[in-house]
Amino acid sequence: MRVFFSVGDASGDLYAAAVVHHLQRLRPRWRYEGIGGVRLLRAGTHLWGITPAFSAFGAWSALRTGVTLWALLQRTRRRLLADPPTLFVPVDFGAFNRRLLTPLAARGVRVFYFVPPSFWGELPERLRRYVHPNIVFAPIYAWQREKLLQAGAQVLEFGHPLVDILAPMRALPPHEARQRCKLPDDRRVVSLFPGSRLMTVRENLPILLQVSHQLWRCDPTLQFALGLPPEWRSDWVAPLLARWGNRIPLSVHIGQSHELLRASDLALLVAGTVTLEAACLQTPSIAVFWTGFLNRLQVHWLRWRGVNVMELGPFALPNRILGDTVMPEFIGWAASVERLAATAWQLLTDEAHREQMRQRFADLWQRLGEPGACFRVAKFLVQWAEQ
User: What does the pLDDT read at residue 56?
Assistant: First the structure.
């Protein structure tokens, strides 16, 4: 049996690796292949290519990384169609993976889409192209499930993988997390998470560093820490740090995102799953989205098409799950350095507000469901493949 995983960002890499970990125990003689990141590689998957740092958030960012990804897509498609696997397991990475679903399903491959994209601006009838007897979707959020069911797709639910992944870190005292990150115990820590995608980091890290500088001017005792995914290299951000971050006390942490979140008094986050990870680890945070100039223009283009993106919010995953803007979020042109710095300073100086946020985050943790999601996924894949 061959199982192929197609992963394009850090969170997908984390989830896929957890599934492979259980599959290796259930079926150690199966062959696991794919495209993905360092975690998937460490789980025992033979990778055709490394993807997370080069995926994109927003159509215009995708265009800027499109040549590399398009070439990878064409190579992957040709190889998979020439020698189809038993199971194809895409994880998020919608712009890439959606182009592989129906061709592989038509060849008899069983397609299990774990964590499908949110389909921003997509009407259910446009998703009917992905309805096929060989395609099963496994959403982890209610809005994904509802849209797929409206389209008539096969939908199964297994729970949220972060429940298992983050449980050990939730039990770690913050001071021990600081020791692991080699951060001082006597200073407040503000962590910066500019994203896992190369273009996203380039667009957002300068903004977060400028906000940090304003906070440092208010309190020179603050310690700042930059969190990057495990497949990153510090030299990728060195020019940005030299230009924007050389005047503040800043440490760089690669592959320690959960420890760093647990160690932080406040986190400044860009898009994606890290907002949910921060909430699960009860870290007071601020979320930032769509800050690139062309991505901001995309918001206006979608509005011209009849989709008002601003009405689709809240955008941060904790806020969408809770149905309330618990984590402050700034979208597009609203994400100015001045506004972000003012909100961050208010949170840093208001312990009651931070505690209230932590209490709401505790409620969110309960809503994610029971542990064992990735094991249940692995067990289903074994049963489905061996039918």
Answer: 44
